[in-house]
Design goal:
Layout lengths: L2 H26 L14 H18 L6 H29 L4 H17 L6 H11 L3 H27 L14
Helix pairs in contact: 1-2, 1-3, 2-3, 2-6, 3-6, 4-5
């Protein structure tokens, strides 16, 4: 395995473990780890993507990176990060937190009750409740994976613009000699 791929895996695994560890802490504190408090953890993937793309640019690509290569690196980082988080969430729910799906369902139901105040048509709410009843640990982990993957891709679009550093078209002559 080449060093740049190891770097991507290390950054992704570190972010996935940190995010998942804090998610587990939320659970044991009695906070829904998939609910509104999960937004407090958003800086973790932002920093991981920034550090991972910058590390790839500076250490494995000669200090230069195009927008496209930075984006691909960010999406690769995001894929492995999302995979780690989804897998850990599934294992956590299957082994320790048997009530994780029920906690999420209760939180979604609470949100639907709040939303019902703003809608005259209850068909939307009824369909949402039907879909919520189908929720399983697998669908919860899959949804978490998808959210993190698409979120990472979106963040990569933005971070790649800031981190791109292309080789100048013409080298400027050294005037100090």
């Amino acid at each position: 395995m080449n060093d740049n791929f190891k770097s991507i895996l290390n950054n992704s695994a570190a972010a996935g473990l940190l995010y998942s560890g804090l998610t587990i802490v939320f659970y044991f504190l009695g906070i829904n780890p998939m609910g509104a408090f999960s937004w407090l953890l958003v800086p973790i993937p932002v920093y991981m993507l920034y550090k991972g793309i910058k590390d790839y640019r500076d250490n494995f690509n000669g200090g230069e990176i195009t927008y496209g290569k930075a984006f691909r690196t960010g999406v690769t980082l995001g894929f492995f990060y999302a995979s780690f988080c989804g897998l850990i969430l599934y294992l956590f729910g299957a082994i320790l937190a048997k009530d994780l799906v029920e906690i999420q369902k209760a939180d979604v139901l609470k949100g639907l009750e709040e939303a019902q105040k703003f809608f005259d048509n209850t068909d939307f709410i009824d369909k949402a409740i039907e879909e919520m009843d189908k929720m399983s640990l697998g669908s919860l982990a899959w949804g978490d994976f998808q959210n993190k993957l698409f979120g990472s891709a979106f963040l990569s679009l933005i971070l790649s613009a800031f981190l791109k550093k292309e080789k100048p078209l013409f080298d400027s002559p050294n005037t100090n000699e």
